[in-house]
């Protein structure tokens, strides 16, 4: 292997040459003597408890509290989550094979529903569900021996199960093999799940759960770590060039299977379905079934923002299954050059497309003030514009122009309206830099376009001017129409 291509030889052996099965047999783990006792360290996503360094099995005491709490599902969208530990997904639990776990499930007295827990790491009826049905204000205790190493999902199994899981009741438990896992610089916890609200995607306010939609398997949101944007912007995962990263990826469901992919990054090692017995290497996309898990390991070679998605891409860019990993450090032009040339290619018959579809547009309420228009526009931006132009309005170099301090936008409000309504397919210069992409026309309402443009003008050192629905209606351009010079 070329020096420096992966880091130290130890890292290479640990992450790429790990072809043998990890862990002992069930019989050996059952017979493993218990030495001492400790209280489990539990963490909220995306954090992971520290690796286990002891060389013996012990008694691990786990206290997990069930809480029914109201929180944010998306911008302007509230939801009552049923949780293990107060957040979605539930707490990450880390133990070692051979450990004996004393599990306490505590149902907060303010809750309205009984709950239990099914840990896929348990060999026993219901994975513990049969022993843990717990009324509000009560606590259930049971124990189990960790016989199998791997990354396992846990979830509530109280009827109706799809409702309890669909409201956020899932998490992950890692049973480390006795040999431990190879050392990495970062470990993160990422869990996909689907939510079924009575209101349509983006419809604001407190949204009730829809049993009809969960039965029909028609989620309004498919997200990572419990909410749209939970792991983006200031909350993105972080690493440096040269760092090794391990992702513990789960799918709580209740229905949707994930095609987990890191845009611009190949997984050096994947443990499919969370099993330690047969790692695979050089993986582009890995399937994570509902109620299943996978472990993905890789080394960062170049800096940039890497997008983590469910590669069923409508879910990523329209329903929320998108996270970010921001990497800093020196560039390596041999590994990735960036854009070297920017040439015009315009075959005959090309034209701007309209971002249309069969999905019904939910009309925005009329803003009663500029401040309200800005607030409503923030929601439109998050749902339609942020994936390309980024949360900070900086865009993507050589691909999507910045909106922050944009001379193109600030120089001509009417031109901005025509660009959003009619689309744009021609070279343009923004803040002294050339771009030559396609801006699709959006079939948003006049109110939505006025709101989002007013929001953009209010942010990132832009002019602060307001756009009204009347102005949008007056200057709206039909998709594909040629703009005339004024």
UniProtKB/TrEMBL annotation:
Cu cation binds at residues 115, 120, 155-156, 164, 169, 311. Binds 1 Cu(+) ion. Keywords: Copper, Heme, Iron, Metal-binding, Oxidoreductase, Repeat, Signal. Residues 1-23 form the signal peptide. Residues 372-460 form the Cytochrome c domain. It holds the Pfam family Cu-oxidase_3. It catalyses: nitric oxide + Fe(III)-[cytochrome c] + H2O = Fe(II)-[cytochrome c] + nitrite + 2 H(+). Its EC number is 1.7.2.1. One of its GO terms (molecular function) is copper ion binding. Transmembrane segments: none annotated. Homotrimer. Belongs to the multicopper oxidase family. This is Copper-containing nitrite reductase. It comes from Roseiarcus fermentans.
